[in-house]
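User: Structure tokens for both sequences below?

Assistant:
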Amino acid sequence: MRRIARRLVEEGFTVDNSDYPSRTDRIEPLARGVIERALERMGSDVGPVHFVTHSMGGMLVRAYLQQNRIDCLGRVVMLAPPNQGTEVVDYYNLRAPFLGRMLQSVLGPASGQMRTDSNALPARLGPANFEVGIIAGTVNRNPVFGPVISRMPSDGVVPVERTKLAGMSDFLALPYTHTFIMDKTVVQDQVVHFLQHGRFRREAAAALAATP
């Protein structure tokens, strides 16, 4: 997230680029620790506090805001979030459990929470009760996870439909992959626009979609 952090600084935002140990813990304790420490670093005299997340980072924000109130909360932009889980986790947990255990040993317990069923964490977090814009990727080039979801539009990790969240303020699908979506200038432009205006630039997205 370093490139998009630099872009936000250039646009006048004060940025705390928070990392978190996703391979060592589950979403709920990660959310409490990471977000509370970031808020402490930002201090109490800041203006609106916005969040820009990638992938599972969006789940941390949802989990935190389900249990906590941020009085100065601004807007949230989620890039490629598994808001409804992903069939990739379903597949490796149910159809290939040995591979699923191997992946969780590498990716950590939080990844195993991203199932698509109604008892999984993404569904239990409920709809958005905050202002959020979501950008999904539509280019599947992932050689490991991509074949599992090859029959549906996706970014190679999360199907486009699974990124959507009830109560979201705006949504865009752009032709980028899961891993590098945050590095794209067009995506960064849209993030800045949403933070400033509460909506994406539809004309810019339409022009990109029309480009051969």
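Moving on to the next sequence.
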Amino acid sequence: MLVGAALAAVVFVVVQLRLVVVPVAIALLLAALLAPLVSTAMSQPRLPRGLATGIVLVGGLTLLAALLSFVVNALLAGLPDLRSQLGQSYQLSIKPLLAGPPLRIPLDRLDDLPDALGRSLVGNSETIANGALSTAATLSQVASAMLLGLFVLIFFLYDGARIWAFLLRVVPHHHRVRVDIAGQRAFLALISYARATMFVAVADAVGIGVGLWLLRVPLVVPLAALVFLGAFVPVVGAVLSGSVAVLIALVAQGPVTAAIALGVVIAVMQMEGNVLQPLLLGRAVRLHPLAVVLSVAGGVVVGGIAGALLAVPLVAVLTTGFRALAGVGDTGEPSIPDVGDTGEPRAG
């Protein structure tokens, strides 16, 4: 009962402080992805830690900005073509389908449907404006969270070892080695998860993007980018992003192309679940699919999109840490190499 009450209190505090906890958690996930690059920059050209951290951080942010700019420009360039294809598809495929059995919607109502949608948008302009103001307030919170996450990420990359050593001081001395090893294993699991997820996201985006390109579906680049981002939310994200691609194929080129696109998405998802993830993660992060789905669902309830993104790595880290605590003997002898601040093994 005491343990349950303590966990409930921790969850309550995390939910109340989610505007701080979520950026710190995202910064820790990015640190697990970038720390090996900082270690490589320090060992190969033998750069100072501060310079190596700055180069990796600036390079990563530049790459992210270039990717977002490319995706947005591709989306804006493809909208006119998508609009014309949507009109043709509505007249040739969707409209006859709605007018036929079993729906049998009258043709006069179907002819008036595009104009009705336009009138609905105009009539709800006040609601849309209020939603835009609410979105602007949310964007200010997102900007503040991004700045906080960037600040925390800099110190995680630059001073991770001393931060971990400081946290270990609150642990009783006779349990300190045990907790240290558990933390090292948990961070190694986070590194493995971040690397594998990045590779799987790239593979999903390339596989589905090539399939959509061969089918001549519009907005291939934005859809591939959406698949890439969705792959960071295990199981659920890939399904949702793939569904958007199939929907675009349906409304743009009809049910046959949509069925083929659905087959491409299913094939890529099967390759991800049965080949890539087991091969890349191995025994580093062992989670049952039910645990993954429940973790994502709980993360959505607690923290929305950010919660869905962080739920599975959090569960993986906690599971690995608890296993390490249960598997290390009272002698405190580590069964794995010691892990430094960059996630790479070190002697000693």
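User: Anything stand out in the second?

Assistant: The first strand starts at residue 338 and ends at 339.
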